[in-house]
Amino acid sequence: MNAPSAPDENPGKAPGAFDAPRVRRAVLTVALLNFGYFFVEFFVAFGSGSVSLLADSVDFLEDTSISLLIFVALGWALAKRAVMGKVMAVVILAPAAFAAWEAAQRFAEPVAPDALPVVLASLGSIVINGTSALVIARVRNHGGSLGRAAFLSARNDVLVNVAIIVMALITAWTGSGWPDLVLGCLIILLALHAAYEVWEVSEEERLAAKALAGEEID
Length: 218
Description:
Blueprint: H1 20-48, H2 51-73, H3 78-92, H4 94-106, H5 115-137, H6 144-174, H7 178-212
């Protein structure tokens, strides 16, 4: 396997150069947005009885953690950033595990959530996650696997929010709790795919670091 070229760590040198200060500002903004909205969605999820919305509220904490970790890790060398990228891949799996646990608890007797608050909370989530995705999209090519982790997380969250709204409408129509549980399984699959992509990019960074050090590429 050929080693990819490493990001240039001199900010402003080229359009694709690594720009740590710019990425830090972006991820700090995203962290504050996600942490603030976590409380809104968390309480609405409990009030409405929605497993999917509850899993999504925990995901806001996951996004906050990812952004704060990126804020710190961008000062590290390429090899250490590659390791942190792998850590981010694992962190992305946390909401999937939580959703799976909730689904297992309610699988025997699914309860239909209250649709209206779920839809309203999800619309708010789309605004927050859409804003986060736009902020990160401007810097994702400057942050390697770390920037990609934040972008994928924000992008996937928008898709999940749309799916939650559709689920709530189906639930209001059928009165069944099954759509909520099925969506939980889809969230798990989405998280697995995002984690895989982040892992792959971090592996490319690891190989680039070895190439720069003159080591043999495995």
